[in-house]
Amino acid sequence: MKIRVLPDYDALSETAAAVVAERLREKPSAVLLLPTGTTPLGMYRRLVALHRSGALSFARATFFNLDEYLGLPPDHPASYHVYMRENFYGLIDSDPARVHVPRGDALDPEAECLRYEAAIREAGGIDLCVLGIGRNGHIGFNEPGAPFVSRTRVVRLAESTRRVNAADFEADRSPERAITVGLATIFEAREVLLLASGANKAGAVAAAVVEGEVSENIPASVLRRHPKGTFLLDEDAGSDLGGGLAD
Ligand code: GLP
Predict the structure, then answer these.
(1) What is the Å distance from ligand 1's center to 55 Cα?
(2) In this predicted model, what pLDDT tens digit does every residue of 95-133 receive, in sequence order?
(3) Structurally, how many domains does the chain consist of?
(4) Domain of residue 7, CATH code
(5) Per DSSP, which regions of the chain are E strands?
(6) Residues with catalytic annotation?
(7) What is the position in ligand 1's atom list of the atom closest to the CA of 66?
(8) Mind listing the pLDDT tens digit for each residue in 3-13?
(9) How far is CA 147 from CA 41, 115, 124, 132, 185, in A?
C-alpha cells in the first residue's frame, strides 16, 4: 500500500483523474469499480472535461458502482443511479450495456446481489477500483464489522452513516439498508485508489493506515494488505498521519 499526500482537493482530483485516464489509455476495455459521494466529484469533472476535449474515450470500458440504497428506484433523486448519470455516465461516451449500478428496487435483493457479483466475474474482475471513505472507515457501504470475506450483499447502515447522508432525503429520513459490493470483491481489484479529502476524514484515514492492526472494525484498513493499493489524500485528510509517511 502507498500513501500520496497532495496539497489540496484540486490536486487530489487532478491526480485521481490522471490515474484513471492513464489506465484507460493502457487498456481501453478496462473494468472500473466506482464510488459516489462528494469526494470523487472533482475527479469526475476532470474526466468529463478530458472526454469533451477529445482526449479520452470511455466507449469500451465497463463500469460498476460500489453501492446503492435499498428500496430506491433508479430515478429517485437521492439514488446513486441519478448521481452517476448526472455527474459521469450521462456526460461521457459510456456504453449503457456496460454500465452497472445495483438495483435498489429489485424485487429480490438477494438475487440482485448474486447477479451483480456474477456480472463482475463475467467482466473479468475489476482492473481499477476507486473508493471514498466514510468517517467511520467504511468503504462502499461496508460498515465497521463487515467481514473481509464479504461479497455483494444487503447491509444495514450504521446510524452515524445515516445521519451524515440524511440531508439527501426528505425529512432527513435516509434508508436503513443498502446493497454494497463486498470487501473481498474490492480487495480482488487489481488496483485500488482510495480518495480522502478534508479534516473530517483525518481520523478515519489514520485508523485505516497507521493506527492499530488491520481490523474489520475499520473496513478500509484491509487495503494495507493490497499489493497495488494507494491512499490519495489531501493535506487535511492526511493531517493525523504524522510527518514520516507523506511522500
Ligand atoms: C457514502 C458512500 C461511500 C462514500 C462515503 C463518503 O456513504 N456509500 O461510498 O465513500 O459516503 O462520502 P463523501 O465523499 O461524500 O464523504
Answers:
(1) 29
(2) 999 999 999 999 999 999 999 999 999 999 999 999 999
(3) 1
(4) 3.40.50.1360
(5) 2-6, 31-34, 62-65, 67-69, 99-100, 128-131, 153-156, 177-180, 192-196, 229-234
(6) 67, 136, 138, 143
(7) 9
(8) 999 999 999 99
(9) 28, 20, 23, 19, 11
